[in-house]
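user: Please review this fold.
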Amino acid sequence: MGGTLDNAAAQLVPPNAIAYVSADSRFDSARWRTIFDLTGPVGLTPELRAAAGDELHLASLPGTDGPEVVAIVKPKDEAKLRSFAARNGHYTVQHVNGWSVVADSPAVFAAVRGAASGRSLADMAEFKAAAAELDTNALVTAYAQGAALQQVGGTVKQLADVAGAPKWIAAQLLPERAAARLELRISAPTGASTYRPTLLRDVPSGAIAAVSFKDLDAPLAKLPALQNYIPASLLPALRGEGVAYLAPATIVPTFVFEVQSPDPGAAEQALRATAKTLERRLNGALKLRVARYGSRVVLTNAPANAPSSGGALVDDQPFKDALAAAGAPAEVTFLAYADVQRLTPFLQLLMLHTKRLDRIGTAVAYGTPARVVIRAELK
């Protein structure tokens, strides 16, 4: 019930649905309390809780003028559901097979009734395969058809292309003991290969945050929407295995970007251009240097004679505990770690939104060809 994909509500969803989301809407439960400790109550009014009942299901269906959204619920108060629907556009409520269906057009209601009496999303092999991959204890699960995402176009299509044009993508939100886990599952992945993040050995003990990657240039080249943030001139420096990290220092934290490149000359040129651009944008407030050591190229704000901490992050117990709790494998497609309490002040200096980060201790994210996991632990 609730957050699981494999449920009776899916039998009312047409088989051509673009996406389908199921949630356990018992928002006063202890399991949701863990999530809200991280995110806040996200505007869940008592009326919405009564209108949703114990489980909430949303489907996005293809429409003439764009996707149509339909909600499928069993409300605790039917009157509140109808009132809530009426105040949010031209939505009305109809009953189908014991469920209250909320939609805004006769065509959507007809499609739902057709699914209920004929072939539905629940009958699709891809949907069944996705449901089998997810935990039955998830608070929220989501499913999207790969072919439908391709048809949406734009950035959504680009992201699907980066994922290897999968048959389906599914996600789940799981509460754990004093932690929350978000997982993304991908079918039939093609493209990203795994590696052992050996450059993490260069990250000093006590580092505040670290990100390990390999061959980011290829997927980023498929995402034109990111070109405003990551210029094409930087791509040569993202080829090969790399690591970026933030380490504590006396006043300004030490930032290091290191890549072991198959073409160190091109990487060095790209990082020198990046350093000049950053220094110019910061009006010379930050001095950067680029150094090359064989096939490794480094961009950093640390002076050349900066002392070493004498240890490595990978040997720190908090780091090892965080990766073990997240289930990170030895080989990944990327890996990220942050001590959020120590990272927050620097995010605030950059004027980034940090609300509720005070509740998070460590955070880990990693990928495999078929899965992406993000886990945040409460302090």
The longest strand covers residues 168-176.
